[in-house]
Specification:
- Helices cover 58% and strands 7% of the residues.
- The chain is mostly helical.
- Strands 1-3-2 form a three-stranded antiparallel beta sheet.
- InterPro entries: Transposase_22 (IPR004244).
Length: 208
């Protein structure tokens, strides 16, 4: 019969050095297997730890970025909510101001129209007729002279009078004559002149 092969000894010795009196038992094999498994587990744990360290660092960095983005998003939402409230308030204020502006504009138009109620425009008076006289006094005397005692017993009170604001004709005798803009102090006197002018022909130095 062939001799059985020698099994390795856990302590590194061959079976021949122990003699046939110390055979390898299952317990020795189990101990050797457990030792090899523990060594393999330790090596695998180190390998896994080394391979996952960089991944964990990347995950931590990504987590910090996500947290930062969440904080910024929260702040943006807060600011957006505050701005929405402010915009809503401003829209209400703008609507109120628009309504007030419309009312004020109507008042301005009304006041402007009322301020012109006593105004009268006298046309076709030759240029230079007033010469160096005060335009207000000139027009007052002119109305008294043209209408006569039918309208006024004395020269009417005029607040102010002036030629229309346009270029003066180059030739005083010809061309377009600038009208006189007259503001009466009393609205009734302006109406009396206007009614009389509608019924009579008014001439001044040959001009109608």
């Amino acid at each position: 019969m062939a001799a059985e092969p020698e099994l390795p000894d856990p302590g590194g010795r061959s079976a021949g050095s122990r003699g046939h009196s110390d055979p390898v038992t299952m317990i020795d094999l189990e101990a050797l297997f457990c030792k090899q498994c523990d060594s393999f587990k330790a090596d695998m744990a180190i390998l896994i730890q080394q391979s996952t360290e960089s991944l964990m660092q990347s995950v931590d960095s990504l987590g910090q970025q996500v947290t930062s983005f969440n904080n910024r998003l929260t702040n943006t939402e807060v600011v957006g909510s505050e701005n929405f409230v402010k915009i809503t308030e401003m829209e209400a204020v703008v609507k109120t101001l628009q309504s007030q502006a419309m009312v004020l504009l109507e008042h301005v138009h009304d006041l402007e129209n009322k301020s012109r109620r006593s105004n009268l425009r006298i046309i076709n008076i030759p240029e230079g007729s007033e010469k160096d006289q005060d335009p207000t006094k000139f027009v007052s005397n002119l109305l008294m002279a043209v209408t006569g005692p039918d309208v006024f017993n004395s020269p009417p009170e005029i607040e102010r009078a002036h030629r229309s604001l346009c270029p003066r004709p180059s030739d005083a005798g010809t061309g377009n004559r600038r009208a006189f803009i007259v503001k009466f102090l009393c609205f009734q006197e302006k109406e009396k002149v206007l009614r009389w002018a509608r019924q009579h022909k008014m001439d001044y130095r040959g001009s109608s």
